[in-house]
Amino acid sequence: MTASVLSTATALSVPDFLAHWQGHRALTRRVIQAFPEEQLFTFSVGGMRPFGVQATEIHLVSAMTVDALHSGQWPAPDWAAGPTTQAELLREWDALSERLSQVGASTDPAFFSARHALPWGEMPGWVAAIYAIDNEIHHRAQGYVFLRALGLEPPAFYER
Amino acid sequence: MTASVLSTATALSVPDFLAHWQGHRALTRRVIQAFPEEQLFTFSVGGMRPFGVQATEIHLVSAMTVDALHSGQWPAPDWAAGPTTQAELLREWDALSERLSQVGASTDPAFFSARHALPWGEMPGWVAAIYAIDNEIHHRAQGYVFLRALGLEPPAFYER
């Protein structure tokens, strides 16, 4: 295997990436549901933001990324916007998953290798896109600790 | 864009995937270092495993995945093995990062699309490989909560 052949070999295809993302979205949805409504936006450990606030940030970053998949543009979201109740969060979550299915099916394959201007810097599309998933896994895992601290069993991590 | 063209389009190339993994490994190393030695394998929130134990599991899953990148084989690790002190963990961490650099440069590109038999089921190589990164982000984020609960500032998530 020469370096030049390896450099263009595919690790994840675009459909792989989209399926991976949707699997994580389904798991995060179960974590949002696992919180008692009255604790989703109030309970915290170590002075961190409650999980509902973190999930709203995940939602805003994800919506920004889905929009960019469609338009190639990355306008900064209004971080003060977004759902503030469990029901509203789940409703907007489902709508975005549906929009990702639609937008994903017509993604420009050049999106991932092209460079993009984000509010926090210029980077290749794959770095910008996978950041949305990394950010989701990171904040969701903090929700796992909050659930444990509440004495609740979180959803299985390996189920997507 | 027809569905057939999109289905073979690359989201992440093999070098992208390897760079992404090494970036996460560098961040997790900083999280391991951020714990006071005396709390790495003892401190916990909500009855969870201490971060040192979680980091050892990350290490064993990662070592298994690096070995598979080289051999295509996935023997179950000895989960009772692995480092038990901060210094030993950091030493084994660095050795594995170095091994990933070597093994990664000669990865068979067919690894990611081929199906593999893991101790927990059969799956495509990309699913098996990215699970190691997902598992790392997930457990590392729980370490972030433990650090906050200890009154310590974790490393910046977006720095790799």
From TrEMBL, chains A, B:
<dbReference type="InterPro" id="IPR034660">
    <property type="entry name" value="DinB/YfiT-like"/>
</dbReference>
<dbReference type="InterPro" id="IPR007837">
    <property type="entry name" value="DinB"/>
</dbReference>
<protein>
    <submittedName>
        <fullName>DinB family protein</fullName>
    </submittedName>
</protein>
<comment type="similarity">
    <text>Belongs to the DinB family.</text>
</comment>
<dbReference type="Pfam" id="PF05163">
    <property type="entry name" value="DinB"/>
</dbReference>
<keyword id="KW-0479">Metal-binding</keyword>
